[in-house]
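Problem: given the chain below (243 residues), write out its structure.
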Amino acid sequence: MKKITLSLLLIGSLLQAFGQQNEGIVLYDQKINMHKRMQDESMKAMVPEFRTNKMQLLIRATESLFKAAAQPNEEEENTDGNGNTVQMVIRVPQNETYRNYETQKSVELRELAGQKFLIEDTLRRMPWKLAGDTKKIQGYECMKATMTNKVNNQPIVAWFTEAIPVPSGPAGFGGLPGLILEVDVNDGDMLYTLTKAEFKKLAAADIKLPSGGKKITEAEFTKKRDEFMKEMGGQGGIRIIRN
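Solution.
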């Protein structure tokens, strides 16, 4: 009788542990190829090719909130070919991406040129194709899925694990039968990689709808962003001051 009781307790503990795998905080490194975003060859020599930001994804079953983790702004000073001092201010936009895969609701708070915009929409199905390849990321067995962003024709490669039963991932990527641990956008243009997953009970207020920005459509925001990037000279969001 004792053996049966012990077995039942062990099974219950395992089930409880597995159930806790769908709530907590997941940390990612966001690695950006800065040179791919620059048109000025002289500026490429003054800026490191890659920049890494710390990001976090709060997950609770079918809902998630993706945003930047706490990190300081960066300022660098260099001298261009004409002897001018160039000050570069690099900061991570305070964007937030909320997804609810049960209600099919999407809310994004995006920062652009010092202004905040709020985009509310329904979740759109991502046309993932399972590739059949597998690999391990931080000890998790992952499967490969691919798709093409039809807006800009960029290839997307994602690696997800069914060991974490959450249909979410970094930067709004999701819709797969497990948490996405790695995403490669446009052959290394931007790479998200899992660094740590901490499963724990979150407070009710930890995952909340983004608010505080001017309501705008996705198309309207894209137009504003393209115009801003054109004004910036294609410098990938880096503000450059020549003295």
